[in-house]
Amino acid sequence: MVPQVTRPSAKWNMMFQKPSLYPWMTVRQNAELGLLFAGNRDDDKIDRLLDLVGLSDKAETSVQSLSGGQQQRVALARSLATSPELLLLDEPFSALDAFTRAALQDEVAQIVSREDLTMVIVTHDIDEAVAMADRVLIMAANPGRIVGEMQVDLPYPRNRASAEFSRQREALMSQFEGLVGDEALSTATEEDTTTRGARDEASQQAA
Fold first, then answer.
1. For the chain, which residues make up each domain, given as ranges?
2. 12-122: which CATH topology?
3. pTM passes above 0.85
4. Is 152 in contact with 124 (CB distance < 8 Å)?
5. Which pLDDT tens digit goes with each residue over 94-151?
6. Which of 106, 108, 159, 196 maximizes the CB count within 10 A of its CB?
């Protein structure tokens, strides 16, 4: 039987597309929220996490004065503070500029690997999937289902300029292109079948 999620748990945390920080709080206050809710405040741990995400010098700064990338780093520190077993990410870098997005992809992947966490990330970005994932699952729509899979066996940090990264990217892209082609063929076949059925029905009525 598949276990059902019935209540929040500190064992899994989620990062969304937006940082969702409390604007009236400082960086430290936002980062330690999970620990405070659990009644387990740990200043040393927050100091370590802020250093880990490169924000130790911004601890007492209002989050409103931070850049988008820095705010996502605060959200990451907050997610890691409760020592989760699973970190869920829903396109957390999609709103950032290309340079900041690439930098955070590398940093988060390395942190997750170093902290020995399991990470599940939803993305529409091929490069992001190859840069961050060890295993890529491809989903099709209507209905949502797993239609492809690929292993990415590259060390962190992953060099986007390397020939092996390019080969992995091309391999993943080819799966997507195959999926799009199959779906287009399936749609065309369905439409042709529907058209023939309507034409046959009209012919019978005319007769």
1. 12-122
2. Rossmann fold (3.40.50)
3. no
4. no
5. 888 888 888 889 988 888 888 888 999 999 899 999 999 999 998 887 888 888 899 9
6. 108
